[in-house]
Amino acid sequence: MCDNAIVSCKIPKEDKSMKIYFDDNTKELKAIVCNKCKKEIRVKNGMIMEGCFHGSVRFGYFSRKDGTEHSFDLCEECYDKLIEGFAIPVKEEETTELL
Ligand SMILES: [Zn+2]
Q1: Separation between Cα atoms, residue 87 and residue 61, nearest integer Å
Q2: How close is the Cα of 73 to the center of ligand 1, in Å?
Q3: Other CB atoms within 10 A of residue 78 CB
Q4: CA dist 10 → 1, 59, 61, 86 (Å)
Q5: pTM above 0.85, yes or no
Q6: Which residue has better confidence, 54 or 46?
Q7: What residue spans of the chain are helical by DSSP H?
Q8: Which of the residues 3, 16, 33, 76 could staple to 51 if both were Cys, CB 3.0 to 4.6 A apart?
Q9: Residue 91 phi/psi, 5° resolution?
Q10: 11: Cβ contacts below 8 Å, ≥ 6 apart
Q11: d(CA 38, ligand 1 centre) in Å
């Protein structure tokens, strides 16, 4: 069980897993690598140019991973494959706030 799951495409300022790369000089977002297939997700001028999925979860006291935080990124294809296997489809909503 998890008590805090955040699912979004927003990129955290610092990523300890080092799957997100920033330019040393400009501190601009340079690349994101899909955890599943190692595909590089295109980034231009610090903006993500295609679909990506950033998942992060903090496992709390009642989990078997007490106090551990997990995070990962998936390209759109890997995300689609992931949700294809769901018994209950994802909740889908129109959003005007495009990233
Ligand atoms: Zn992928």
Answers
A1: 27
A2: 8
A3: 18
A4: 24, 20, 26, 23
A5: no
A6: 54
A7: 76-84
A8: 76
A9: -80, 125
A10: 20, 29, 32, 48, 54
A11: 6
E strands, the chain, are 4-8, 20-22, 29-33, 40-41, 43-44, 47-48, 52-58, 69-75
Cα distance between residue 10 and residue 52, in whole Å = 9
Q: How many CA atoms lie within 13 A of 93 on its CB side?
A: 5
Contact status, residue 34 vs residue 79, Cβ threshold 8 Å: no
What is the CA(78)–ligand 1 centre distance, in A? 4
Higher pLDDT, 10 or 72: 72
Ligand 1 centre to CA of 34 (Å) is 5
Looking at residue 46, what is its pLDDT?
Answer: 79
Distance CA(86)–CA(69), nearest Å, equals 23
Q: How far is the CA of 35 from the centre of ligand 1 (A)?
A: 7
